[in-house]
Amino acid sequence: MRAHLLSAVLLTGLAACVGGRGHPVRRSLPMFTPEEVHTLTRYRLEEPAAGVDGDAAVSSLFTGVGGLLATIERLRSVQVVDPRQPRLAQLPKLESAVARRYAGGGFGGRVRMVGAMGVAGRVPLPPKTMADMMMNAAVEKQVLAANVFRHVGADYVLPGARRHRYHVEFHRIGEALWVYNLRFTFAAERRDLADGRVLLRYDPRTVPKPEHVTLWRGGCLLEPDGAGGSRISEVLILGTDISLPPFLVGAMRNMVRKKLADRAKNLWVRAWQGR
């Protein structure tokens, strides 16, 4: 399912990750391939510096991903009427902004159509438990109704911070003459803060080369709320290079929005079942 303004804790590349694969000194770990270096340096997300926590960590992870932090902040103010149901928000302005930004090409190729969804609400699980569920490949495969949702590795795992990679496939999406297979890989960045908040950020990967899903981005803020519960504010964005007749573009966008909305609803069901 975005200009990069780097904070002081974000470095200019990932080739010098302290303790991580590709570090120029630690030859005991395999070096990055040229393709991986090209991909990783476009994300500009370094392992977090020691001592970065609280609001500074929120800012360093989300600020600069065009409109993400501002949208998450707006979702935090959404009134929750029924905690057993997520509040869903279509984000047409964000969709238009992303489409303009990547009109000439995104991380994985052309971005011809964008669907975005905002999710807000409360669940009866603490932030860390809910984040574990959201980073569980088997859970996400079910709630997204994906044909494939597979964990393919971790770039690093540190106390309170980690980055994992997932490969996703949807088969035969569409109707009539316009049916496609969608395949892509993305990275999920996680920060567990001392105050109990958990941050998640999603970024596309270009290795292996994606098929039709040329942009998958977003982020989530999970905050302690009530007796062992969480307040969730999440944004998901999906962009595709699929070219459709004008009269089908709206239907495809609605299909993407429905896929993202169904994921949120199914996650809420799982969260309440796991209470």
Rg for CA atoms? 18 Å
Task: Please give the largest β-sheet.
Answer: 8 strands, antiparallel
Q: Stretches where pLDDT falls below 50 for ≥5 residues? A: 1-43
Average pLDDT taken over every residue: 81
> What multimeric state do the chains show?
single chain
Topology as a string of helices (H) and strands (E): HHHEHEHHEEEEEEH
Give me the count of strands: 8
What is the global morphology? globular
Q: How far is the N terminus from the C terminus? A: 27 Å
Query: Which strand order does the major sheet show?
Result: 1-2-8-7-6-5-4-3
Helix content: 25-40%
Number of H/I helices:
7
Structural class from helices and strands? alpha+beta
* Strand percent estimate: 25-35%
Compact summary:
Helix content is 29%, strand content 32%.
Would you write up a description of this structure?
It is a single chain. With 275 residues, the protein is of the alpha+beta class. A hairpin with a 2-residue loop joins strand 3 and strand 4. Helix 6 crosses helix 7. The longest helix has 28 residues. The two termini are 27 Å apart. The N terminus is likely disordered.
Which key phrases capture this entry?
275 residues; alpha+beta; 8-stranded antiparallel beta sheet; 7 helices; globular; disordered N terminus
